[in-house]
Amino acid sequence: MPVSHDTAVELVRDLLELQRVMKRVTKTDAGQRQLNPTAIALLYYLDSNGPRRATVMASETGLGPSGLSRQLAVLEGEGHVERTPDPDDGRAALVAITERGREEVRTVLEQDAQRLAARLEGWDEEQARGSRGAINEITTVFLDSLGVERTTSCRSPHQPDRTGAAIGGADADPEHAAHDNTVQDHAGQDPADREHEEHPAP
């Protein structure tokens, strides 16, 4: 039986509410960090996908070129990313995560996992895994409808597919899905990026 219109409407409302709440959660946690949520999401992306040209990063992350440039400048200045020559085109450069950047990813992942576990104190393992499965299913449906591959969420360098079974990557914390897909740092966005975020289309 196909999904009814009324159920689709309720799903939209639920997803928008989740997005709103995740923004608040991320901003609260971001106050304790040097890097903003968008910069952290870019580190996850590079850690999972390997070196990328800036143009490819802009396309795959949804950030505008100037916003991406600002974020990369901060990350490069902090030693979290570096630019290397593209072996396929000597005129181009690849952006790659450094060991310092990978350490930042591991640190943030551990911190977020601890915070999430505290918020889910009343849950059991079955509830947590069931919720993760539902999140991954709807994420995969959205990605398939766009004809694009999954980037960071539920994917690790050791398992570059869309099974949602990767261990040790950004999938260990559902909050990171918000980092990757819905939460952007307003200070690092172009107006067009900010408008897109504030008026999302499921």
Query: Mean of the pLDDT scores?
Result: 78
Q: How many separate helices? A: 8
Radius of gyration from CA coordinates: 17 Å
Number of strands: 2
Structural class computed from helices and strand pairing: mainly alpha
Task: Classify the oligomer.
Answer: single chain
The first-to-last residue Cα distance is 21 Å
Q: DSSP strand (E) fraction?
A: 5-15%
Q: Which residues sit in consecutive blocks of at least 5 with pLDDT less than 50?
A: 153-202
What is the overall shape?
globular
Q: List the secondary-structure elements in sequence, H or E.
A: HHHHEEHHHH
What helical percentage do the residues reach? Answer: 55-70%
| Spatial arrangement of strands, main beta sheet | 1-2
Question: What can be said about the biggest beta sheet?
Answer: 2 strands, antiparallel
Describe the structure.
This protein has 202 residues and is mainly alpha-helical. It is 58% helix and 7% strand. It contains eight helices and two strands; from the N terminus they run ααααββαααα. It has helices at residues 5-30, 37-49, 54-61, 65-77, 99-119, 125-146, 175-181, 191-198; strands spanning 81-86, 89-97. It has a two-stranded antiparallel ribbon with strand order 1-2. α2 (37-49) packs across α5. The radius of gyration is 17 Å and the shape is globular. The two termini are 21 Å apart. Mean pLDDT is 78; it is low at 153-202.
